[in-house]
Amino acid sequence: MAQPSPVFLAKAGLVIQLILFLSIGVLLFLSLIFLVWRSPRAEDSSAALVEARQALVALQTGLLPMELVGRIFAREDLQYVRSQAPRSVCAMFLSERKSVALAWAGQVRKQMLNLMRFHLGSARFYARLSFRTELALAIQFAGLLLACRALQLVLYVGGPYAAPRIVGATAATAAQVCRISERSLAFLNSAGLGALPGRPSGASL
Amino acid sequence: MLDRLIYLASMRDYNTGLYYHDGLAARFSQEVACEALADCHREVFRQLVACSLENVVCQMEAYMKSTHTSPDEFLAAWRKLEPYRVAVPVEADPLSAQLLFSTFKIALAVLEARLNPRSRESDASPLRSPGR
Question: How far is CA A33 from CA A24, A26, A27, in A?
Fold first, then answer.
């Protein structure tokens, strides 16, 4: 059997090198296309901002004020119904408060997910949070979502008065996360944005 | 507060959501009157949501007496028509509205139980003292 000539071997080596470099070039080009495709477009970015701002307002003004949370889970109402009304009304009261409590936990979780999406996707483009703050926020988001799920389960099984400590801890942690998120969205609170026509007073976006 | 909520809601046009008050509009302007009434409505709603069930029951009882209708008729109408559902401000937080509707529903049931003590006796709660 004839051995390949040294010239042929040298040429084959060059072709292999060429194929290798071409492959690397194609890979780099595809990576570039992927990165360009992944970068947030203006409309996606503004939608994420509006969604995050709405979530923050819903949490701070609608879901987390202590007077509302305290009223939903107030034991004095249960004691009053027990002392004033028959068992059927007590059962109705517990069922009604249970559905309100479940709705509260579900809403807090939903709005937290909206805020988390904003932080995962585009917050770093608008706010320079330190690595430590971002890490703390990620841990708080994870704990909060887990706590909301656990709370929903406990409320569903045990009723509205089954887990007052989890309710308190969830509300406190959610308020803390809101404060950090507020810093990320603080640039929206300019006087000019607040004065746009057709916007309800008190809301920036 | 319940009577104020009903009164303020009655000043709102259901088709436009705008509040009308001739006296205020003549003294200030229609826009200013509308905004002021909307603010009052929101504030009364917020205060009512924060009230305890006992307080809401008392307010409902007082309101029922002020209407000069028979308690049975009043309770039946409120239970069937649920007029409080159209009495909340437009921008009311849905969860607060849900809580208030729920509180009204329970308050009606408590008042009904008070008016018909026989049903209460036959359905006595085990948590109450046996002497009652």
Answer: 14, 11, 10
Burial of residue B30, with CB atoms counted within 10 A of its CB: 0-12 exposed, 13-18 middle, 19 or more buried: middle
As beta bridge partners, residue B19 has B12
Residues A119-147: what's their mean pLDDT? 75
Given a contact cutoff of 8 angstroms between Cβ atoms, the answer to whether A150 and A166 are in contact is: yes
Find residue B12's DSSP bridge partners.
B19
Q: Is B98's Cβ below 8 Å from some Cβ in A?
A: yes
Sites in chain B below the pLDDT cut of 50: 124-132
8 Å CB contact between B56 and B107: yes
Decide if A72 contacts A104 (C-beta within 8 A). Answer: yes
SS3 B51: coil
Measured CA to CA, the distance from residue B2 to residue B107 in angstroms comes to: 12
pLDDT on residue A138: 82
CB-based contact A84 B114, cutoff 8 Å: yes
Instruction: Extract the tokens encoding B122.
Output: 């036959």
For A:36-95, CB contacts with B below 8 A are: 58, 61-63, 67-68, 71-72, 74, 76-77, 80-90, 92-93
Interval A185-204: pLDDT, tens = 766 555 444 444 444 433 33
ipTM reported for the complex surpasses 0.85? no
